[in-house]
Fold this sequence. Notes:
single chain; mainly alpha; two-stranded antiparallel ribbon; 16 helices
Amino acid sequence: MAASESHGHRGEGAGDGRDRSATRARPTTESPWAGRVWFAVAAIALLVVMPLLLSDFRLNLMAKFLCFAIIAVGIAFAWGKGGMLTLGQGVFFGLGGYSVAMFLKLEEAGPGQLPDFMVWSGVEELPVLWKPFQHAWFALPAAVLLPMGIAAVLGVLVFRQRVRGAYFAILTQALAAAFVIFLIGQQQLTGGTNGLTNIRAMFNLDLANAGNQRGLYVIVAAVLGAAFLLVRHLSRSRYGRLLVAVRDSEDRVRFLGYNPTTVKVIAFSVSAGLAGLAGAFFVPIVGIISPTMLGIVPSIEMVIWVALGGRASLVGAVVGALVVSWAKTGLSEQFPSGWLYLEGALFIAVVTFAPKGIAGLGELWRRRTDDRSEGSAPPLVPSPLRHLPGLSSGRGASEKLEREPSA
């Protein structure tokens, strides 16, 4: 009896020792205020410096790139934290964009009138699908809620069957292809290949006016900051640890009594909602939405932004979207026929030499600096499974350690 108790105490002590060693391995070199300071610096750069330095044309391009960054934040959450490689974000981006574009076309046409492309196509009465989009109170929320609803339904159907990995990626890619085929085939309903074009006003404001465009830029920058903070909060919450645990060991989480389907559906829906939100802002900034912006190739480009920036880091995803989009615009102006080759070479180089993307380079530099200064091993972060009931301590505790860049 005494031997048994002694053995039990030794086991608990060993477990505590592992916890303490893991704690000692995590150096606290960064101030808790560091993230807030960097966020404030980025906010000042986007909201104050950029409008002062950039011309109206370049600032409008930057507003478009910030829309792409919102998409990247959602992909980083679903793919980086949840392990769901989605190659169909163009669908949700398009749903948000078309929702707002339909409202703006009806607003421009006036009460009782038809959009210009319907007149050209010989349509005599407004289709039933378009009628709810006459109202801003329906169209604007639909830009976010419609993608989230479709993602939730699709996620429940797919994740219940335990479809994951490459199969899930192929499924979302097929969804993007089907969506584009539908848009192109419904000329009288969606504008066909051309899409919805010549969007010049919103709430009676001239979108070609430089002051209105600057106002849109500020709003998009603020929305990007809010989306970043929301996803960062979710990632660091108990739900975020559970999402990473599902990514690393879905079966083990299921055995602990959690439902991985619900966890993954939430992350997938949030990612889709952010893509729809980006599409809603993209339309008044650019003035057009068409199937060519929503298909398989654009969806893959969205994933490339996150892969180059670092899918495990929200900051890396934002930087990747901005850098790749800006490089695409700048280099395509100088080398119109060579940008795709340069983009492919950049992707291959990052995957080969920096698998964790731009954010991983910073992490690697910090580790090497710590190794040289302290001569210790890189910091180890305990697996999120340790936070779940049943695996918190003792011999049943998960001994898996993983390294993850912070958001």
